[in-house]
Amino acid sequence: MFAVTTSPPVGQHASVLAALGGRIASGALATGQVVTLDGICAEHRVSRSVAREAIRVLESMGLVASRRRVGITIQPRERWNVFDPRVIRWRLDLGDRTDQLLSLSELRRGIEPVAAALAAERADGEQCRVLAAAVSDMVVHGRSGDLEAYLRADTLFHRTLLEASGNEMLRALQDVVAEVLSGRTHHGMMPARPNPDAIALHDEVARAVRLGDGPGAERAMRAIIDEAAAALRAEQGH
Amino acid sequence: MFAVTTSPPVGQHASVLAALGGRIASGALATGQVVTLDGICAEHRVSRSVAREAIRVLESMGLVASRRRVGITIQPRERWNVFDPRVIRWRLDLGDRTDQLLSLSELRRGIEPVAAALAAERADGEQCRVLAAAVSDMVVHGRSGDLEAYLRADTLFHRTLLEASGNEMLRALQDVVAEVLSGRTHHGMMPARPNPDAIALHDEVARAVRLGDGPGAERAMRAIIDEAAAALRAEQGH
DNA sequence: GTGCGCTCATTCGTCATACTTTTGCAAGAG
DNA sequence: CTCTTGCAAAAGTATGACGAATGAGCGCAC
């Protein structure tokens, strides 16, 4: 239906961008290290134009800084645009998965309860329907143990909720949350069978939203996040 | 001491980027409208290399999309990277100020209470000291009516709190929050004299953080945001 | 008249190259 | 030892050429 992030990195420029971004996020290119444009050209067999465009984008993400006479310097993490979906994906795929997921969980604890509260005031009928359907799917696939299908339903639930918040900033975090959920199951940080309590809480959120109960939706959503964080800690503590 | 965001847009490429970004954010270039690369070259008297690099960055921000045979298409707001500091600044400076500030207020209502709670567990002595000093400055300059100095203290307070949260994602929102505070006072959306209650709440947050009282800090911070939103509505309803 | 396919013009994508500008660094003058 | 000065390295900019995709219009067949 839709692949929001640029799924097939087509175009020379996108390949170089992805390659360099990945190497920086993974730490293969360490902070403070410098590379030269010509070096990139040679390594990836591309022209200077292509390399320059890739570098410019990385620079706009705060991953590198380019200075005359010295070259392209990898920037410290503090300068990174940590909300850029591509940066998040690179870090989840190749970098510090666990730290990143813990950070994002703390962020979600702020974001999603507010989104739930707003959604309770603003969600339309269709969105309520989708939320209910998503919960239903979570129940079914949670029982059957089909983690992929469960992930799809879970993602749809959270995306819809953020969408229903009617706030563009929260809506923009759809991809972030989706990446977190996806990263959790695809990197073996989910229990083999989803926690039934978590599903029940999702249902509670859906109901509260439908009834226009802002505080209730906020509370239940907070519980979901706390449960997820606890589960993550448990998995990690293995 | 430091200007975190690229303060003086030096370099041909940065000028074009800022010009186009501003025109898109302000709506002067409407969604769906198309421009050509050659058109940009001619208009800004730059070479294709420079124009291409600017376009690539805009594309990475989701502001435009480039397709062969058709040109460069301005994208709808839903695709924008609304967390990119430059996008936020452009929108605050030239675009839909009020909507943007309301959106950001809702976002802050989620972010900052969580940051306060985390800070209560993680802030070090120095950060507590800075928070206290910032509150003190807010009291002084709030009384004297020096809005610029008040803004500096307020900004320092919120920046320090987000920093003390120890969460990189929250820390990355420092610029966003700072932009909001700055935008509020610089666009005539602040009362002539800051609300003393708001200052008292800041003090309460600082104390709770110092005492390690997470829930208390979270509550007080939530009250700050609610007060700010109410004040904004009042000013707007004028 | 309608529908299908083919050609073509347009616009971005990529490459190669030359020139300009900044700036770290080191050698030499005091 | 310090300061100046000149050099060279690297990014920044400009230009021109070619390649590739693709929307649009034209023409042909039925």
- Secondary structure tally, helices of chain A: 11
Query: What oligomeric arrangement do these chains adopt?
Result: homodimer
Number of domains of chain A: 2
Largest interchain contact: A-B, 34 and 34 residues
Shape of chain A: elongated
Proper CATH architecture of the largest domain in chain A: Up-down Bundle
Q: Can you give the helix content of chain A as a percent range?
A: over 70%
Describe the largest sheet of chain A.
3 strands, antiparallel
| Uncertain runs of chain A | 1-7
Ends apart, CA distance between termini of chain A: 36 Å
Instruction: Please state roughly what percent of the residues of chain A sit in beta strands, choosing from under 5%, 5-15%, 15-25%, 25-35%, 35-45% or over 45%.
Output: under 5%
Descriptors:
238 residues; Arc Repressor Mutant, subunit A; Four Helix Bundle (Hemerythrin (Met), subunit A); three-stranded antiparallel beta sheet; elongated; disordered N terminus; DNA-binding
Structure, explained:
- 2 copies of one chain form a homodimer.
- Chain A is mostly helical.
- Chain A has 2 domains: 70 residues, Arc Repressor Mutant, subunit A (Orthogonal Bundle); 141 residues, Four Helix Bundle (Hemerythrin (Met), subunit A) (Up-down Bundle), CATH 1.20.120.530.
- Chain A is 70% helix and 4% strand.
- A 3-stranded antiparallel sheet of chain A has the order 1-3-2.
- In chain A, a hairpin with a 3-residue loop joins strand 2 and strand 3.
- In chain A, helix 2 crosses helix 3, helix 6 runs antiparallel to helix 10 and helix 7 packs antiparallel against helix 9.
- The N terminus of chain A is likely disordered.
- Chains A and B meet through helix 3, helix 5 and helix 8 of A and helix 3, helix 5 and helix 8 of B.
- Chain A binds a DNA duplex (30 and 30 nucleotides) through helix 3.
